Each structure stands twice: as structure tokens, then as C-alpha cells.
Amino acid sequence: MTGRYGPTAVVVGASDGLGAAFATELAGRGFNLVLVARRSLLLDELPYGCTRPHGVRVRPLTADVSTVDGVAAVLSSTTADEVGLLVCNAALARSHRSSASRRSSSTPCWT
Question: pTM (2 decimals)?
């Protein structure tokens, strides 16, 4: 799969549940991983389960992608990677996009 998509996958919402399952599966298929989640405690435990059995590189990143700053953190931390696959498993419970002109960098992207 890495030959088709590239060597690195970014998994957003990777701290538990389906996001963690995606991360484990992608590691098993040889992808290096950037694991993104809001909760650093859960996120810090996941890389060891991915790297030991599969020998891939895993980089955890604590970021809230419902904010402009969180998205910017993901983009800036992956610029040197050849990202071929993005799994966006983060839940947003907001219903419509706010005006970009009224939004500051610390407010949610979705309101």
C-alpha cells in the first residue's frame, strides 16, 4: 500500500477507538505514521503498540483540528513528510462553517 499512496499516513483522531484501529492497521501495512489527537495521554501510549511489532516510525502530535491553530500545527509538522494518506477520524459536532473573517486563530473552525 505504501507504494501506491506514499510512505506516511496521518491519522487524525487517533487516540482511541476507530482512529487507533486505523493507526494499527496502517502500521501493519508498512506506513510511517503521524498520529494526531487532542488527548495527549492516550496518544502517548499508542505509538509503542504500532512501532514495536511493525518497525515503522510513529510521531504523535497533540492538536485540536477543530481550530485553525490545530490544523496549522498538523500542516507545519508534516511539511517534510511525503504524506500519501489522510484518515480524518476526528468528530466535529458543529453544523455549519463560520465566516473566516470573524474567526480568530484560537476559535473553532466550525461553529
Answer: 0.76
